[in-house]
């Protein structure tokens, strides 16, 4: 089943909507069947796993990889770029769109959230919610247990430290961490020499290569 365009438009409108629509529930159930099949694949069934991922997700780029188990509200709203990698227990609250750039690396137990519920109690009782897109740029690294909240954009090449709570946009080419996540420094000459703290980059990796 292809998720109806009306359902996709509702979820990605940026407006409050009710999530108990019959057509929406039916479409989501079909997506959950694909997700179950993806997580049930054996390590030796990589071809089958990739085929299911391309049915489940909005996009699953060349040589992309997601380590099961994957948890997702939908899957079809997540666009996973070429060569991107996600370790186990990635959770996608992807009622809204999630865009993950090429070569991005996502550590274990990360959560990407596009969706929230109104503060007003009577609206929550009506099972309403809203969704705002999340965009993670090219060649980003999210450390273990990072949570990204609705509407956030993370710029290309940036590194988000483990256990960070990303509540606001993070620019490109920085190291950021914390709860809430804040920019600590720019990526610069120090990183050309040291891969972590005072540990020097060893040959042949000590030769600088340009990053597109």
From TrEMBL:
Say yes or no: keyword Transmembrane helix present. no
Signal sequence coordinates: none
Q: Which residues form the Maltose/galactoside acetyltransferase domain?
A: 8-62
Entry's family note: Belongs to the transferase hexapeptide repeat family.
What are the entry keywords? Acyltransferase, Repeat, Transferase
Supply the EC number(s): 2.3.1.-
**Broad enzyme group:** transferase
Q: Mention any Pfam family matching this sequence.
A: Mac
Name the InterPro entries on file. Answer: Hexapep, Hexapep_transf_CS, LacA-like, Mac_dom, Trimer_LpxA-like_sf
Q: Please name the GO terms that the record assigns under molecular function.
A: acyltransferase activity
Indicate yes or no for the key word Repeat: yes
Which superkingdom?
Bacteria
Q: What is this protein called?
A: Acetyltransferase
- Which organism's genome codes for this protein? Bifidobacterium hominis
């Amino acid at each position: 089943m292809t998720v109806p365009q009306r359902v996709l438009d509702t979820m990605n409108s940026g407006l409050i909507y009710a999530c108990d629509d019959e057509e929406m529930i039916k479409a989501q159930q079909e997506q959950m069947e694909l997700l179950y099949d993806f997580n049930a694949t054996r390590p030796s069934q990589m071809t089958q796993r990739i085929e299911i991922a391309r049915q489940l997700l909005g996009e699953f780029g060349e040589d992309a990889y997601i380590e099961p188990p994957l948890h997702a509200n939908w899957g079809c709203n997540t666009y996973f770029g070429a060569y991107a990698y996600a370790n186990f227990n990635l959770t996608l609250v992807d009622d809204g769109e999630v865009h993950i750039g090429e070569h991005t690396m996502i550590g274990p137990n990360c959560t990407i959230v596009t969706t929230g519920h109104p503060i007003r109690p009577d609206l929550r009782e009506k099972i309403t919610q809203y969704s705002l897109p999340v965009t993670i740029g090219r060649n980003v690294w999210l450390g273990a247990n990072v949570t990204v909240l609705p509407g956030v954009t993370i710029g290309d090449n940036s590194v988000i430290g483990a256990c960070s709570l990303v509540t606001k946009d993070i620019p490109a080419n920085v190291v950021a961490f914390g709860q809430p996540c804040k920019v600590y420094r720019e990526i610069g000459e120090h990183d050309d020499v040291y891969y972590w703290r005072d540990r020097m980059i060893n040959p042949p990796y000590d030769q600088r290569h340009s990053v597109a």
